[in-house]
Amino acid sequence: MILQTGFRTDIPAFYSEWFANRLRAGYVLVRNPYNPQAVTRYELNPDMVDLIGFCTKNSAPMLQKMDLLRSYGQYWFVTITPYGPEIEPHVPPKETVLCDFVALSEIVGPDSIGWRYDPIFLSDTYTVERHIQEFTRMAAVLAVVFSFCPKFAALVSAMPTGTIGGVSLILYGMISAIGVRNVVENRVDFSNSRNLIIAAVILVCALGFNSVGGITFAIAGVSINLSGLAIAAIAGILLNALLPGNDYQFDEGSNEPESASLRV
């Protein structure tokens, strides 16, 4: 039996304690929405339930209760969208949901979790263009984070070479294009030596370290490899923070999609 929990409400977000109690009790009572007098009892144990499906926008309340699900097959659809509290007042910020998504994937494994970017709501603020930018940024963040996950790396390596090549071409091409666009829209002054130095170091680090395979080091017995792109990104962030002459500041408290905010 497949138990789908997500068609009527977001159980992980709003009813995690109730669901945990049902798992402990070993059964759940379900009322038929078309016949309220009909109540069916379903047994909750790994011998009866092959898989439990979850659809959620906030997995955090369930993270401390995952031991109760250890014996069950699971699949999680986690929705992560760029909307603010004016659209979704009960959904945590996307940065928080992204972190919880990574934590959940480490528990259930990359083959038991999927990211949903829906619904796509269009308005003067949330335009098609903004959705493309936000989706690309979130995909880039998840790609960087999961690159440190051995299970995810194994999953990617099992994909056909042509598929990986196509995905990489589109993903990294869009990331590069958005980066160039941010530079243009923010009117970065390359006659300023500070900006020129940062850009030069980023380019040299990306190309130079990539040609030698990046940098590999170990932390707590775990071998970590930083590619040329990762080293270039770190170098750019550090130089931007350390070099004097910063002539701008990030926007605060605005819900408008400003290009200078560089929000992830």
Structure description:
The protein is α/β, with parallel strands linked by helices. It contains 9 helices and 8 strands. The strands form 3 sheets. A 4-stranded parallel sheet has the order 1-4-5-6. Strands 2-3 form a two-stranded antiparallel ribbon. A hairpin with a 2-residue loop joins strand 7 and strand 8 (222-226). Helix 5 (128-146) packs across helix 7 (161-185) and helix 8 runs antiparallel to helix 9 (228-242). It starts with a strand and ends in a 22-residue tail after the last helix.
Integer average pLDDT = 83
What percentage of residues falls in helices of 4 or more residues?
40-55%
Enumerate how many helices there are, as a single number: 9
Alpha-carbon Rg, integer: 23 Å
Q: What is the general shape?
A: elongated
Strand-pairing-aware structural class:
alpha/beta
Order of helices and strands: EHHEEEHEHEHHHHEEH
* Main pleated sheet: 4 strands, parallel
Strand arrangement, major sheet: 1-4-5-6
Low-confidence stretches: 253-264
Q: In percent, how much strand structure appears in the residues?
A: 15-25%
Separation of the first and last Cα atoms: 39 Å
Overall number of strands: 8
